[in-house]
Amino acid sequence: MQIKVLFFGATADIAGKRSEELQVNEGATAKTVLAELFSRFPPLAAQKLHISIDQEYAREDSIVKNGNEVAVFTAVSGG
Amino acid sequence: MQIKVLFFGATADIAGKRSEELQVNEGATAKTVLAELFSRFPPLAAQKLHISIDQEYAREDSIVKNGNEVAVFTAVSGG
Amino acid sequence: MATVGMDFCELTTGPINVNLVARRVVPPECGATVTLDGYARRFTKVKTTGEIRETLYLEYEAYEGMALKEMRKLIDAAHSKFEISNIGIVHRTGKLEIGETSVVISVAAPHRKDAFAACEWLIKELKQTVPIWKKEVYADGEAWSEGEAAS
Amino acid sequence: MATVGMDFCELTTGPINVNLVARRVVPPECGATVTLDGYARRFTKVKTTGEIRETLYLEYEAYEGMALKEMRKLIDAAHSKFEISNIGIVHRTGKLEIGETSVVISVAAPHRKDAFAACEWLIKELKQTVPIWKKEVYADGEAWSEGEAAS
Questions:
Q1: What is the pLDDT of residues C23-33, one digit of tens each?
Q2: I need a surface site. Which of B35, C37, C149, D130 has the fewest CB within 10 A?
Q3: Residues 6 or more apart from C104 whose CB is under 8 A from it?
Q4: How far is C12 from chain B (nearest CA, A)?
């Protein structure tokens, strides 16, 4: 199944792009997605990352479904 | 000696004027001034009053000096 | 309204631009300003009866010289009590239509926690010590506000 | 900027008029609005070294859909926690010159104590949960801000 991963701020700088299409297996979790991203963009592994699924904060064991919009970003700093 | 008494808000309404010239004796206190004002404007005596001397909050036993600007007013309600 | 980055307190009979007040207190090392904007409200609950009264307009009267002195004392005291950079206080006097701003207090501080605490302290003190009086005018009468009890 | 007396949250790439934001949250039964005005500051202390750096300008980036969702969650939570009437939150994105407003949070409440408490809570939470990122651009480089630790 296919998901879209979005990058913002520092993660976009590291990835050198603002989004990435990923193929993942049924039952994949946020952690699975992170592992795949670390292999594609190794410097991401050095960051303390947050992950969201369909615009809601998710945990590492949250299940990813086909068509989900996943975002990976460092600590927010608005205000 | 002579002092000028100022009224504001409710006290000006009661006095029907915004200021009053008073003759008081040497050694007069704020309390002396209030007593004189109560005799001139009796409804003032029913009010919980604050008094200032030369634009500083004063107590009943504060001494009044010749030429002082004394003000008599009810609880402030700005803001 | 030209000086920037200094304390100030003023009385004015014209409309208050809240934005300009807030911006005058901003020094370059600060990142946040907290502003209290008080304004003439249409509906007021009468303390004694709980009845809701509709206000047509307000009139504020100040003992101008002493009001400015007391505001300056509050500014000095706030600088002693809180880690803040600048304070601006502007109070309107005269007649105010419903919705018009009666008082603005803006506090700029390096840390917003101090700005919040100082701004809240300043309005509480102002309502208890600065010689300004509010008259509420209703359709069927008028009354001088009784002010706010010390807490 | 026409609706008055309702909650709202927005992202905008244009200048923010703090006055208009504050006035949009005012319902007729309230007498006070507390506003937090955050802006791009020139000087920032580097946490690790204590060095003072001069910022030339800022760039804010938002995950727009999620940022608005998170802001709406904060508004809902604030209504549960505090006795308040209306909340307005506007956050700017894109490039900001020094001194320009990045965020405004205005809270109107019947009692100003609740307005102060809610406004302070909202900015603290916004800085920890709303997906917006700040980049500081210096003469000799740039850095994404590390945000604010939960307290």
A1: 788 776 677 89
A2: C149
A3: C16, C18, C21, C22, C35, C36, C37, C38, C88, C89, C90
A4: 13
